[in-house]
Write a structure and sequence with these properties.
The complex is a heterodimer. Chain A has 5 helices and 4 strands. Chain A is mainly alpha-helical. Chain A has one domain. In chain A, strand 2 and strand 3 form a beta hairpin. In chain A, helix 2 (35-53) crosses helix 3 (55-62). Chain B is mainly alpha-helical. Among the domains of chain B are: 520-558; 737-795, no CATH class. Chain B has 33 helices and 2 strands. Chain B has helices at residues 2-5, 8-23, 27-31, 33-50, 75-98, 105-124, 128-146, 153-184, 189-193, 205-219, 228-231, 237-246, 251-263, 267-290, 294-315, 318-349, 365-379, 385-397, 402-427, 446-464, 466-482, 498-515, 517-531, 535-557, 562-584, 598-616, 620-640, 644-667, 678-704, 710-723, 728-736, 738-769, 778-794; strands at residues 55-62, 67-73. The chains are: A mainly alpha, B mainly alpha.
């Protein structure tokens, strides 16, 4: 499938999918979506990019090892839980703040941080597996 | 204050590496301030404790289980805390000199301070859980310290052995403590001590007793669990002096002494403890006679001393307890000192074998003096503290009946042989003709001689001022161990009486053994060689047996054939669904014919075609893609039935499964065709039909039950109100059931790591399996490339 059309479209498609994955992640609390599905979409985006251009460009594009991103996600989720200690409430209790940025009320919360963690874990683990399988006889 | 004191050594351990990087070995002076400060802190308790006060404090830790973080300072724990911090100060200084210039000196300081914190916590713990946690921490830090020279295989083996033996004992102790908690309903030592006969009268007393002994005997190296202690001498000498003579190995004795008021005065206690203690005493001294290595000689006498302490603790008379208390204090001082002497000899002359080193008295006068003083105390000569201990021991043991006579003889033999070994360690390297040592011998720097000198003098000073010493330390400790007020009165002035005659007999035996040490050594050596087996060998055999067993079990269960795993999984799943349904007779009734729209029928038809294609497919890629078709159809159905979240996820999962399965297939170089014998096809098909059928039945049956809407209502009501989210599915995932999700994503990540590791090891193994050369030939690479291209075409 390394056709000219696919290779031309792939970067745009992948970027759009990543953007869409973030949209799905953030809307998740009120509309269908969330971290898990967002992570899957982002992983598919990279799979498409990888099929079009090979593994090395993907690895360069994400800079970090996908497993590191996955670990970062778990770290974020843990932080989201631990933050509640400082408010003297049990582990993983949802905490909300509403800062006003440029006149817009923004709802930030530990469940959102937690969901971003889920996103990274799923994205990292799947991408890592897919890339490792695509790579051949290197190690 | 005491709360913070518990953390001081750990904080010092945190800064030790950085300080050592800046100040080199002189960091010892700064780091020693931590234990020295603690020593002063605990001295502040002496006055109160000597008047019979008991200090407790703490915070709730896990209130729902009634577990507290609490400590207890009484005569017993205070004396231990003072020994730990006092000797700890000297040990930190000594390590500064002993490991001067060592690459990992900072790490060493860190480990030894962590150990100090654990040991201090152990003796001060009031709550059972805290006691257990610190008990295990001492095992772990001991492991790190024994294995400090981790490049040497012997060190690693010794460290592992100590960890396994004391770790097993720790588990036994945990079980024992939990049992005591269940029997009495108490989880604090201070409450347990005032609970009277509650524990003794329980039918489970013997079980609790045996479990607690399992912990105490392994930690305090009682026969037959003693073998790890001599092997632990692989550790640097400061460790041997501190952990394996003065403090950690006494944790078991501490535990027994602590529990004496509630477990003592029973037949089991007064039989098992003296018998095992006495056997350990005799075995330890005899094994010590066989050695020529200074540290090993001392190690075996430590084992013997621990035996003596256990024997006295269990003997049951008040004088015996007092003897144990005095001997414990004096042993910590003289044995710690002698170990440091041995370390100095080793450090300066390059050997610690008494048959190779002699005549160092001029070169190392201070070390020699310290060695002599310590040996006088160990031999139990007046006016040293060891003399007081021995007099009290004999006063506690010597009664008319056979039982007492036996143990008196055991004590005389043990003490006599220890007398001989003590003087062998203190005299042999220093007297005689000066031999040419591997190094030019001279006295060590102040860091090296301060420790032995202070401890050796301590044995003299404490005896000379025995009145005050008893008031402050010995009597409160003895009171804590016996459980009622006890007064230690013994002084250095010899009283004519039976104990004195027994002391004289001990000294006579000691001098005789010292003179005859060479023939005894030869005799012991030939005896042990003739026997040929010991617990140390036994340990290796047990470990090897466990490894073989686990290997056999693993090979049986994990045979590495994927078909076998899948067959077992699915067959069991079918049985797990159908058998309970059959037994309970809960078969579903025939469902009514569904009324669906035509497009819903169309989607179901697509799914069915996908499945049909999977079965009919000639090559695997087609099968994988066809399975994807079925999955997409199901996703569409979810969408139509009003589950957008599920459908969304199903789409993505199906897409990625197809991609990853196809990639895995090329990566694993499976043959594109699925070759299965017809019999196998029938068998696999039967399992597939059974699994599908079972699930269908289960789901039909589930749908017939009235749906419990209470959870749905709960989430409908509270999702927006409490968790500020309108998407209930997502709110459940990230908020209401967040901890489940947390566990799940941890599993996802770990699986990702595992897959990565498997893929990385794969090429090597498949290469060796196919006996290909290490680097794949260009043709092979090209074939793989071709297959890959095919996959992409198919995608």
């Amino acid at each position: 499938m390394r056709t000219l059309i696919f290779r031309t479209v792939a970067p745009y498609l992948a970027s759009l999918m990543i953007l869409f994955s973030i949209f799905v992640l953030l809307r998740g609390h009120n509309e269908p979506g969330g971290g898990f599905i967002g992570g899957l979409i982002a992983a598919s985006a990279l799979a498409i990019y990888g099929i079009a251009f090979g593994v090395s460009p993907v690895r360069r594009a994400i800079r970090f090892h996908p497993m590191a991103l996955s670990g970062f996600g778990l770290f974020l989720a843990a932080i989201a839980g631990i933050l509640s200690f400082f408010s003297g409430v049990p582990f993983l209790t949802g905490l909300w703040i509403y800062p006003s940025i440029f006149g817009v009320d923004l709802a930030l919360s530990t469940p959102m941080l937690f969901d971003i963690g889920v996103y990274f874990v799923v994205f990292g683990a799947i991408t890592s597996t897919a890339l490792a399988l695509e790579e051949r006889e290197r190690d | 204050m005491t709360f913070y004191a518990l953390f001081v050594p750990f904080i010092a351990a945190l800064f030790a590496p950085a300080l050592t990087r800046v100040f080199k070995h002189n960091a010892a002076w700064i780091l020693a301030l931590a234990p020295a400060g603690l020593f002063v802190h605990y001295l502040g308790y002496v006055e109160g404790v000597s008047q019979g006060e008991r200090f407790t404090g703490g915070y709730p830790w896990i209130p729902s289980f009634n577990v507290n973080f609490s400590w207890l300072v009484d005569g017993l724990s205070l004396t231990f805390a003072l020994l730990i911090t006092g000797i700890g100060t000297l040990i930190v200084l000594y390590s500064g000199g002993y490991l001067k210039g060592h690459r990992h000196q900072g790490r060493f300081f860190s480990f030894i301070l962590m150990f100090m914190g654990s040991m201090q916590g152990l003796v001060l713990s009031d709550s059972f859980l805290m006691l257990f946690v610190f008990w295990e921490l001492t095992s772990i830090t001991s492991f790190l310290l024994i294995g400090f020279n981790h490049a040497a295989e012997r060190s690693r083996r010794a460290a592992l052995q100590a960890l396994v033996v004391t770790g097993l004992g720790g588990l036994s102790l945990l079980a024992g403590l939990l049992l005591i908690r269940n029997i009495t309903g108490l989880s604090e030592l201070s409450l347990l001590l005032s609970s009277g006969d509650l524990l003794r009268d329980s039918p489970f007393f013997i079980a609790a007793f045996v479990l607690v002994l399992g912990g105490a005997f392994t930690k305090s190296a009682q026969f037959p669990f003693h073998f790890w202690l001599p092997n632990a001498m692989e550790a640097p000498t400061p460790v041997s002096a501190y952990l394996h003579s003065a403090t950690m190995v006494k944790a078991g004795v501490y535990l027994l002494m602590r529990l004496n008021p509630v477990m003592g005065d029973t037949v089991a206690w007064e039989t098992v403890l003296p018998v095992f203690g006495g056997a350990t005493l005799i075995a330890g001294t005899l094994l010590a006679m066989r050695q020529t290595d200074l540290k090993l000689m001392l190690a075996y006498t430590t084992m013997a001393s621990l035996g003596l302490l256990v024997m006295l603790t269990g003997f049951g008379t008040e004088k015996a307890i007092e003897g144990a208390v005095l001997y414990l204090i004096s042993h910590s001082m003289f044995k710690g000192g002698l170990f440091m002497v041995a370390g100095n000899v080793d450090h300066e002359s390059g050997t610690r074998d008494i048959s190779k080193v002699s005549g160092l008295r001029r070169a190392m006068p201070i070390t020699f003096a310290a060695a002599l003083l310590a040996a006088f105390s160990m031999g139990g000569l007046p006016p040293f503290f060891g003399f007081l201990a021995k007099e009290e021991i004999y006063a506690g043991l010597a009664f008319g009946d056979t039982w007492s006579v036996v143990f008196t003889i055991v004590a005389i033999v043990g003490n006599g042989l220890m007398f001989a070994i003590g003087f062998a360690v203190a005299l042999k390297p220093f007297l005689g003709r000066k031999v040419v040592a591997p190094k030019d011998v001279h006295e060590g720097p102040v860091l090296l001689v301060a420790g032995p000198a202070v401890l050796a003098l301590g044995g003299l000073v404490s005896a000379l001022f025995s009145g005050a010493f008893h008031d402050w330390f010995s009597s409160p400790m003895a009171s804590a161990v016996t459980g009622h007020a006890a007064e230690v009165t013994i002084t250095v002035v010899p009283h004519v009486g039976l104990p004195l005659y027994l002391s004289l007999a001990t000294i006579a035996l000691g001098i005789a053994s010292y003179v005859a040490i060479a023939p005894v050594r030869t005799a012991m050596a030939s005896l042990l060689t003739g026997f040929g087996w010991g617990p140390d060998r036994g340990f290796d055999q047990v470990i090897a047996g466990i490894v073989r067993l686990s290997g056999a079990v693993t090979r049986f269960i994990q045979n590495g054939r994927l078909e076998a795993y899948i067959t077992v999984t699915f067959v069991l799943m079918v049985l797990a669904i159908l058998v309970p349904m059959g037994i309970a007779g809960e078969w579903p009734s025939m469902p009514a014919f569904p009324h669906l729209f035509f497009y819903e029928w169309a989607v179901i038809l697509i799914a069915a075609i996908g499945l049909f294609a999977v079965i009919m497919a000639k090559d695997r890629l087609t099968a994988i893609v066809s399975l994807g078709v079925q999955g997409f159809a199901v996703a569409v159905l979810f969408m139509l039935m009003g589950a957008p979240d599920l459908s969304f996820t199903q789409f993505m999962v199906e897409t990625l499964s197809v991609v990853i399965l196809a990639l895995a297939m090329t990566r694993l170089r499976l043959s594109p065709q699925d070759h299965r014998a017809p019999v196998q096809r029938v068998f696999d098909g039967a399992i597939a039909l059974a699994a599908g059928g079972a699930f269908t039945l289960l789901l039909l049956r589930v749908l017939e039950v009235d749906l419990d809407m209470s959870l749905t209502e709960f989430f409908n009501t509270y999702s927006l109100q409490v968790a500020h989210g309108r998407n209930i599915v997502n709110v459940i995932l990230v908020d209401f059931r967040g901890i489940d999700t947390f566990g799940e994503i941890a599993v996802v990540m770990v699986s990702g790591l595992a897959i990565l590791a498997l893929i990385r090891v794969l090429p090597k193994r498949s290469r060796s399996a196919l006996t290909e050369p290490p680097a794949p030939p260009p043709e092979a690479a090209r074939t793989a490339e071709a297959i890959h291209a095919e996959v992409r075409e198919a995608n």
